[in-house]
Automatic annotation (TrEMBL), chain A:
SUPFAM superfamilies: Di-copper centre-containing domain. Its cofactor is Cu(2+). The lineage of its organism: Bacteria, Bacillati, Actinomycetota, Actinomycetes, Kitasatosporales. This is Tyrosinase. It comes from Streptomyces camponoticapitis. Belongs to the tyrosinase family. Keywords: Copper, Metal-binding, Oxidoreductase. Residues 54-71, 218-229 form the Tyrosinase copper-binding domain. Signal peptide: none annotated. InterPro entries: Di-copper_centre_dom_sf (IPR008922), Tyrosinase/Hemocyanin (IPR050316), Tyrosinase_Cu-bd (IPR002227). Residues 246-273 are annotated as: Disordered. The keyword Hydrolase does not apply.
Length: 288, 131
């Protein structure tokens, strides 16, 4: 049993431990394996085939398992490390200690977006990005999209998702307007300023690699998804009678059959079922 | 997967795209994600909810945007001649490898947004770092 803390409450020693362990996992090659896995299991709902990571009911259980596997990889290097969480409704400015020199480093510079502060700056030599997607090798951020500014989600915007009493609904994809899952994941239609909600909006706000399929290149990915994981937990507390949906395997004539994964079907790549990760409390807890 | 030629002789653009797409596909599952794009007939209209993977159906454009050449071709979207990996949402809009957490109504809008967020970087043509 371990505790995932709010990143704002980490001690200097805890920050250092987390950063050092990430750099070691990167050096060993394991870190990029996780990035690749995120790319591999991103499938959009206009495509055929099963969707596990995104635009699907398994968005939450898939990322829970994914983070847990990542955390275990870190703990094989340092058993005391856990993945902190970033409450972006509270620590919602570039001045947050999250972005300081001794933790994740700050915004990208204006010329090319390159992050030049902290341990993940390219010049420090320990965080080279080489994934075949873009030619650039350095971590990039553009907080708040300077060309057309947006803000991080507010508590009210998050409540719009948290107050939803139903977990998810047909057609179990990015077009569903009801349901906690998609309101938290953030696929909604709308104008340029409103079309990102909650989870998606945070990716948009950070910018750089966080915008794309290779988002885990930015270490803040894990702190973001640790908070998303906590939000699922809070939602369950708020709606104790609600359950993961769909509960049963979809009928063969359902357009989402074989595409959206139900409660007791295995999620690739681990074969873990959503029903096995509905609660994390036997594995880890969140700091109150 | 790079040994199955198209049924008819490919155009130069399509051949370049296929070669580049294969190189891009070397990163993990992007190969799998690209497969439906390579298979689909771009002249087939896409209907939302169907197996709608693929390049923008016959959305042809060729313009300079933000100092980059962006092209919509039968085989997909190119930025400075390099393939921009795109996926289709169920509502018919697109996400690209550069913007995976927002979508755009047209291939042209997707290409322009990718240029906006590429900064000074180019799409990788052959980056077999993940294999």
């Amino acid at each position: 049993m371990h505790i995932r803390k709010n990143q704002r409450n980490l001690t200097s020693a805890e920050k250092k431990r987390f950063v050092t362990t990430l750099l070691e996992l990167k050096r060993q090659g394991g870190y990029d394996d996780f990035v690749r896995q995120h790319v591999r299991y991103y499938r959009a709902d206009g495509d055929g085939g099963p969707r596990t990571g995104h635009m699907a009911p398994t968005f939450l259980p898939w990322h829970r398992k994914y983070l847990l596997e990542f955390e275990r990889a870190l703990q094989r290097i340092d058993p005391k490390v856990t993945v902190p969480y970033w409450d972006w409704t509270t620590d919602n400015t570039p001045a947050a200690s999250l972005w300081s020199e001794d933790f994740l480093g700050g915004d990208g510079r204006s010329s090319d977006g390159q992050v030049t502060t902290g341990a993940f700056a390219y010049a420090a030599g320990n965080w080279t990005i080489n994934d075949g997607v873009l030619e650039r090798k350095f971590l990039v951020r553009a907080f708040g999209r300077p060309t057309s500014p947006i803000a991080l989600p507010t508590k009210n915007e998050l409540a719009w998702a948290m107050n939803e009493p139903v977990y998810d609904a047909a057609p179990w994809d990015s077009t569903v307007t009801r349901g906690f899952r998609n309101r938290l994941e953030g696929w909604t239609a709308g104008s340029d300023r409103t079309r990102w909600r909650n989870h998606n909006r945070v990716h948009r706000w950070v910018g750089g690699q966080m915008l794309g399929a290779t988002a885990p290149h930015d270490p803040v990915f894990w702190l973001h998804h640790s908070f998303v994981d906590l939000l699922w937990d809070r939602w369950q507390q708020k709606h104790p009678k609600a359950t993961y949906l769909p509960r049963r395997k979809l009928d063969d004539d359902d357009p989402q059959s074989g595409r959206a994964i139900s409660l007791d079907e295995p999620m690739p790549p681990w074969r873990t079922k959503p029903s096995e990760v509905l609660s994390h409390r036997a594995l880890y807890r969140y700091e109150a | 997967m790079n040994s199955s030629p198209p049924a008819s002789p490919p155009s130069r653009t399509r051949r370049l795209f296929l070669r580049a797409a294969f190189a891009l596909g070397v990163i993990g599952g992007t190969a799998a994600a690209l497969a439906p794009i390579l298979r689909s007939d771009p002249r087939t209209p896409v209907s939302p909810g169907a197996d709608a993977a693929g390049p923008p159906a016959a959305e042809h454009f060729d313009e300079m945007y933000g100092g980059r050449r962006i092209q919509g071709t039968d085989a997909g979207v190119l930025v400075d001649g390099r393939p921009l990996h795109m996926m289709r949402r169920a509502d018919g809009s697109y996400v690209s490898v550069v913007n995976h957490f927002e979508s755009f109504p047209t291939a042209l809008a997707t290409a322009r947004a990718a240029v906006d967020d590429l900064g000074g970087s180019r799409l990788a043509l052959a980056g077999p770092a993940f294999h």
